[in-house]
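Following up on my earlier thread - several people asked me to post the actual chain instead of describing it. Fair enough. Here it is, all 223 residues.
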Amino acid sequence: MSTLADHLEQFALLSLEKKDKLSLLIGEHTYCLDLDAGKVRFNDFLETSFQVIGTESDNTLIWLWAWADEQTEDIPAHLLQAARELRDWGLKKGVQEFTLPSIDLHKADGQVLSMIACELCNANCYFQDVYEGGSAYLLLFDKRIDSQPPFDLLRLSRSFLDLITRYELDHRKTILSYLRMKNLPFAETGPLITCELDSKERLSVEFDDAGRLTRLNGATIST
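Reply from S.P.:
Thanks for posting it. Predicted structure:
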C-alpha cells in the first residue's frame, strides 16, 4: 500500500515545473472563471479549460474534495470528473487522503493534493484560485502551458528548496524521481548526484545517509 508521501516524492517537482511554466506564460496576471463554460481566462488572452478538485478553508483549516462538497450543485457535473477519478484512484491504491471527504490541512493541504492530482490526471498545470476565506484548486488543460521552457538550474533549485522546507519527504527520492521521469541522464557517486538539465546546466546535489539534502550546486544546505 502506497502513502501520500510516496506520491508526493514521485510527482512534486514535475507539477512544480508545470506551475512554473504557467508563470512564464502569463507573467503578472488577472484572471476570471466561467463555471458555465468551464474556462478560466488569464490577462484576456489565454483561455484554458479546467476541472475543480477541491477547496481549503482558512477558517476551519480543512480541505474538502469537490466530489464531497455540498455546494457542488453550483458547479457543473462535467467540472467534477477529475475529482471523482481521483477518489476512485485513492480507493484502488489505498491512499486514504484521496478517499475521505475532508482532511485537516495539517495532514495534507491543497498544494500537496494538487501536485499529486496534476500528474495523475495528466493536467498541464494546477492553479490556486484564492478568495476571501480560502482557495479553490483547479487543474488546467492547455498544451500552450506545456510548450514553455522546463526548469533551468536556478528555477529547479529554488522550487526544490522551497518544497523540502515546507514538507516532510525524502529529498533524495524526490530529485531522483524528477530526473528519471524527465529522462535526464544522471550519475550517482556515493552521496553525490550530478545531472545535465535540459538547459545544459549541471545540477549537483549531495545527501546524507537519511536522504536529506546537504549540498546543492556547491552550497552547503541546512534543513
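The mean pLDDT is 94. That should answer part of your original question.
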